[in-house]
Amino acid sequence: MRVMFATAELSPIVSVGGLAHAASGLVRELRDLGIDVDAVVPDYFSLPLVDEVLSELSVPGWAAPAVVRDGVADDFGPVTLVRVPGIERPNPYVDDDGQGWPDNPDRFFAFSAAVAALARDRSPDIVHCNDWHTAAALGLLETDVPTVFTIHTLGHQGWTSGGWLERLTRSVDAFESYGGTNPLAGAVQIADRVIAVSPTYADEIRTIEGGAGLHDQLSERGSDLIGILNGIDDSVWNPEIDAAIEARYSAADPSGKQACRTALHAATGWEDDGTPIVAMVTRLVHQKGIEYALEAATYADGIPFRLAILGSGERSLADWAQHLATQHPGRVWFHEGHHPVMAHRCFAGADLLLLPSRFEPCGLSQMQAMAYGTIPVVTPVGGLVDTVIDADMDRRNGNGFTAASVDTAGIVDALHRAVRAWKQPRRRAAIQRRGMTRDWSWTEPAIEHIEVYRGLLAERD
Fold this sequence. Notes:
The chain folds into 2 domains: 2-231 and 442-460, 3-Layer(aba) Sandwich (Rossmann fold); 256-437, Glycogen Phosphorylase B (Rossmann fold, 3-Layer(aba) Sandwich), CATH 3.40.50.2000. Helix content is 36%, strand content 19%. The chain contains 16 helices and 17 strands. A 9-stranded mixed beta sheet has the order 3-4-5-2-1-6-7-10-11, sandwiched between helices. A 6-stranded parallel beta sheet has the order 14-13-12-15-16-17, sandwiched between helices. A two-stranded antiparallel ribbon has the order 8-9. Strand 3 (50-57) and strand 4 (66-73) form a beta hairpin.
């Protein structure tokens, strides 16, 4: 089976958010399971490739020239990098001020045209596109190849002017939206299968509240809309082999976690007075509910806990976090930026992980944290529902704590319950063990994707 897998991000080649890690983890596992996957990514940075082969695609004039580089990328493997006009940028999506590049529609429509041309030339068995950046490819395909479209987040749909409709070649009406062009809306209507990145998210996006204006179109897909929970790359997120952390450890012998905890205290400048460390490794954006966490930090002395935040994003949220860290250095620590090594050290050294998301299609941090024996405290949304079992509600199976409501009060209550459990060593160890022994890898999700692919091919026989 040959699958063409098109994505705007693919770790470690280009990584902005969860899309990069999800795409990379799935592609690696599919290949391990014997699927021939052609990973197609925009050529943002002219990344050097081993055994590079150059070619040019025949694309519409508005997308030309389209140059393809096939080769092997370090720490990933075979990849197809596509350069179209304007695609090369220091950041795939935004400028230095965090504003979207004004020509993003031009850039990603051109990339989508290149994906469609590659499908014509390489004749894959399946074309699998991800999020709005590749969605227009489904409206430009020249062959009747089975298609899969994955929604990683519904909030970004690529809406642009109606003039782009004239450049699409099939199912044009599906892409029309209030006189404009909505790439994601078109893809969710015409893909043979639509995948959401968790079962709960697949249900949420069928509702008015969670559908971002596309709930009707998504509901109409019926059983063709499937929820498949993401996994994490256990060759990267694994305390037994992680070279970035102070000491390696496992569920069978978790003693090394204490050394990691000591190292995190040293990094934050805190003395270990027995207060649990609550970590946040996150993008500082509205979706992630950062305001709830920062407001909850004002209750830290009473619960008590310390809050260690690692991340970057919206300037106002970063300034707020820095202000709290400056005003309360004994309770709040903030490191601004994307720091992969420090992320590993936070997951290994923290006692609890806080994810106060307003919505969360899947979430990877809670699974990464549990793999390291760090207990998650989350809101009841999306993939967090599918991965975190509240330890007060289910004493036998609980692996974390879930807020009763998506607000500051709910977060404070959940943190209070989590800290109370953490202070009971036997109960803490049991909760940690449940998280560490569950298989969070990509194996099962990849098998589910292969079943989707095979089902589509069987329908064509």
